[in-house]
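Thread: Modeling a multi-component assembly for a lab meeting

Hi all, long-time lurker, first post. My supervisor asked me to bring a structural picture of a complex we are working on to next week's group meeting, and I have zero experience with this. I have the sequence lines for every component (1418 residues in total). Could someone generate the structure of the whole assembly? Inputs are pasted exactly as I received them:
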Amino acid sequence: MSAPLELTRRHFLSQMTTGMTGLALSRLLMSDLGAALPPGTHFAPKAKQVLQIFCPGAASHIDLWDHKPLLDKYDGTPLPGPVEMTFQGKNGNLMKSPWAFKPAGKSGKMISSNLPHMAQHVDDIAFIHSMTSRSNTHGPGCIAMNTCFTREGYPSGGAWVSHALGSLNQNLPTYISVQDVRGEPPNGKANWGNGFLPARHQGVSMAAQQPLRNLSRPTEISQTEDEATREFLRTTNLEHAELHAGNDELRARIAAYELAAKMQLAAPEVTDLTREPDHVHALYGTRDSNPLKAAYAKNCLLTRRFLEKGVRYVSLYCASRASNVDGLLNWDAHRTLKADYDRHCPIFDQPTAALLADLKQRGMLDDVLIIWCTEFGRMPTHQVGTTGRDHNPDAYTTWMMGAGVKGGVSHGSTDDFGRRSVTDIATCYDFYATVLQLLGLNHEKLTYYHNGANRRLTDVHGQVIKQVLA
Amino acid sequence: MSTLLFRAGLALLTASPLIGAEDPASVAFFEQKIRPVLVEQCYECHSAKAKKLKSGLFLDSKVGWQKGGESGKAIIVPGKPEESLLLRSIRHTEVDLEMPPKKPKLPDTVLADFAAWIKAGAIDPRDQATAEVKRGDKNWWSLQPLAKEFTHADIDGFIDAKLAEQKLTRSAPAKPQALIRRLSYDLTGLPPSQAEVDAFVAAHQADARKATEALVDRLLASPRYGEHWGRHWLDVVRFGESNGFERNFVIDDLYPFRDYVIRSLNDDKPFDQLMREHLAGDVIGQNQPAVEVGSAFLVAGPYDDVGNQDPVATQNIRAATLDDMITATSGTFLGLTINCARCHNHKFDPIATEDYYRLRAAFEGVVHGRRTVVTKEEQQAFDGAMAPLNAERAKIVAAQDDLTKTVEAKAKKLLATRKPSRPKADTLLTEEKITPVDARFVKLTMSATSSNPKSGVGGRISEFEIWSDEATPRNVALASYGSTAEGAKGATADDFPQAYSAALTIDGDEGAQWFVGNPAELVITLPRVERISRLAYRTAKGRLVRDNTQGATPCEYEMFVSRDGQEWQKVADSYDREAWSPAHAFERVRREVTTPEEAKQLAKLTGQLAVLDKRIAAVPKLRQMWVGTHQPKPAPTFVQKGGDPMKPLAQVLPASLGVLDQVTPKYELKADAPEGERRVALANWITKDNPITARVLANRLWHYHFGTGLVDTPSDFGFLGSKPTHPELLDFLAQRLIAHGWKIKALHREILLSQTYLQSADFNPTAARVDKDARLLWRFPPRRLGAEEIRDTLLATAGQLKLEPMGGPGFRLYRYLRNNVSTYIPLDTQGPETYRRAVYHQNARASVVDILNDFDLPDIAFASPKRANTTSPLQALTLFNNSFTLDMAKALATRLDGPDPIAQAYSFTLQRQPTATERAAAEKLIAQHGKPAFCRALLNSNALIFVE
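Re: Modeling a multi-component assembly
Sure thing. I ran the full set together rather than chain by chain. Output:
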């Protein structure tokens, strides 16, 4: 009895790894034929795992990463050209960043003084300053930055990678979405959805404040009862499967229960942060007196543990959706930029920098590609009657770091004030073409048939941004 | 793992010549990896277009490589890469035949692609002998008229003929136990009861045909039929009860559409009628709510409702909104992906981009939203009830106005004599310097805000400051100093408890505001008595803002201090300040000038108005539904270059689609045709004399009965979709559908009573080698239950399923949080109010609910003409550990009250007796851990959720 089951389980796991489309199957066959590439890849990969850090709410490029000295000089004067109507309406005059920029690292990269910890990493980071978005609205903008489509229903980058490359571990999900303690980002679950890909490719929500749903044995049931119940189930399912030859799905379900039991044991171990020494907690700031910072720091630490255990793709969120109060729960500083970012930067800065340093020190950047995202940028002007900035889909910054990325690079640029991207203009398509490239995938070849089209993560666009490749 | 895909994969492995060709994934593989290489590297010498054909070998068709070149042998042996000459020559392992000639070897990845392709069966969709077809034209199979003459008289004839071609035969008839389970799930989505099984088995032994007919008729007549098949249809029409996108607000008045679908199916409403109602129910059934509700189809999809001041963004959003209607309409009714022609002519089908915009012209005036949907009689009755009330109300209001004017005139005079000595309250900073006083408590009461002269509720305060009376004053109100603030808050954010609270007034941060609740009063308690001389508050967030408070600046107030919190001393008020507005000023002096008689009279009128308003409120409101609204004169429609609304090209008219002009009657309306007329014309064109519509619908029925359609891409009959396994049968079924007057119950009956359907699901390894998935139906294909069926089955098995109410507002398996966006939090425990059939769950987009989502309930961002069928450890975790399963296990355990509880359990769950091994194992488990443990296992068993 056990031999066929073993066979099935291996079969099942290999499907977990590759997906079972004709394409994926062919890769399976390809590896049988002795091709030297890792399963699923089109060419030799530079990175095996992805850490995505997402700051929802449209984190302002010109107040964090993209230094605009002329903005200081022309503060309070009109932006050349007609007064623009943007998302929330009229714009006032140019408004300088409330924080000075300071040179950092050997590269002397200018970075906001509000990010003192992140400044230590600039020599390892490739900034892309010339991003543009197709949407000026948070929800569609966020999912575009995750799926390359402004409408929901398309698979996120993590789901595509799961589909293409499968799992690197046997006890944890392939793709985990770590949400902020303040809640979900704009458009919620669509950001880590599987879209039309099979459901197993969806990002699974886990965070320090929120364990995986249904993971634990119900408290009212003892370990022995749980095991006895599983054993009965296994026996009865095996008998049923024997009576129904030719239905592989039955055996796949038996294997799924066994894998579930393993996850039930493994996951609590991974999420147990008490196993970390004090100095690591101190590095991340998990015990900070600011509860929001401490919560995010715990998620950063958890993220490192996920990556260590071979989770393929982790999306880590810093801040959440909009609330009735603009800029309170996320980076959407419409009215009071200074107060808002004096709240958000300290939450983001130390824990994120600690995570990057920790990954580096453990040698994990050989495998892990880090991408930092937000949905669009902000206007160099202030919104009429406020000290905040409106949405700006025409210019924003993202960055990459880690496996396969050339550090200390600033690719593309915006105009003198950061109003528009002007050189080497980039899009989410280019961004993900580059991410896939680093993972050993040709973005034009990674496709999936759905409702009449062979869909791609990069739609019908995308060019690899070679300048950020090591 | 997706079974469909999984099956496709195995089909590739077994190199079935029959099945692979139909499989979109393997076709995609060929299209992406193989064809481009052949075109680039080989066609120059090996195609019909070659200037000089080499070795007589064609590689631009499947027949070409099958025939081979001058050698006369196939150069590809499907399944055997090593034996394929083609592969050896491109690998340069065939001496003197290194290909392509005089060029470097192709990259290793390409060679690996070819090896994989050949090993997987060398699926090659290029059927035509030599023509290189990259896309469908109007000769495409699905664009042809329906066949009228058939070689067989019934379904079995078509099936048997195809089986015979592969030397296969149908299986023996299914056993009655299996058959009733199969039919019950197929038609109602629920298991049969043991009594029903027993009765059917007995009747079947007496007269199998008669018993089966009776069973099919009983199930088709069951109200459960409409619930189950209605759910199928809701998948197809991408029905979801929230608007999706950023806000994703739940929609509470769309459920009438769900009930309408269920009712229509139970009533066996002709489907052509149903489809016309979907597109134009509000026009063809004006003032008939039961018909009008059908047109909710158009607005049942997701749409972006976030307002936008940017005009370009607004146009793009509108285009996306209409795109959803166009996509839903073309996929649901026509099986065409017309939406792919939004930016350019369709890449694979003969659909011109004009066709896309013709459809857009039909929907140009449709807008998402709710509207009153009532009969004329209901409207008249309502108007009749309201008329006298409105008249009476007008009278009272007029009297109020008169009196108010009198008072106002006096107030104005008095106001003219008042000279405010101080400026008005200030959004940035409203400050009171007071005589130094010892205090431990400070109270602010507010009686007006800048937008409401009559109440301070709704005001906002970002900071309140209390300054000490000393050389270097300190703000002693700060929380960091030890002070506390109390006050009711007027807003909440469920997941962020500190939001909007009075504590925000003393946090030293001008970013976040206290939203003033009722009573409009703030009390600040200092850690100790302090000598103070200045009080101040701010509404603005930050110090440069003047106009962003949306009327929330408190502007009429009094301030008090106290040493003990008992005795209060007033230290300041706003009454000598300039009033915020004349209305505020009036409100201040109003009381002074109103005579007692006037006050009495006003109070009386106010009282009368309140009584009357209660009577008005008691008149039942007219029913509102989410059926959309319509602009009577829609804007003109233009083709958009690259799908960009900012780049209009030629104008298009509301008209029939060119792609079908060879098989359907044409129509073309004028550019200014009224809105409703456009949709009626489209609905008629889709449902009358349109061969595609019947073919697509017939295939959907087949798909749900057998698990896979004759075309296994049910909403895509185009070039990238699949071709039918039985094209003639498909047309036969479409003709039968039309002959039955588009009533689908009659077609169900024909399919269900065919020997093809009634055969057993027994496995046959020989047949499986040829046709693993039984697409040719050498057996009935077994299937796993769908998401709703699984939850409904657990409820039914546990004796907990509530069949009433059959319709009405849906239940929720999530907690719904809303401020300016929505959050859906899955429930940890599902109470008895959720024990209804899952079709009545209020399925919101981008929400996650246990069990249903795990078992592939689609996310409904798009239509789901075919559900995924996955197997994952998360399913196992959920079904094994979720409290719902445990609750059902306990409920089932309490049902096991007879002398043989184990037999009872198998009877409730599987409608059969346990085997000897099952009984032994069950006895052991029950003895050690009790009945609920045993029930939990049974509810997780494969046998429960697979039908054969």
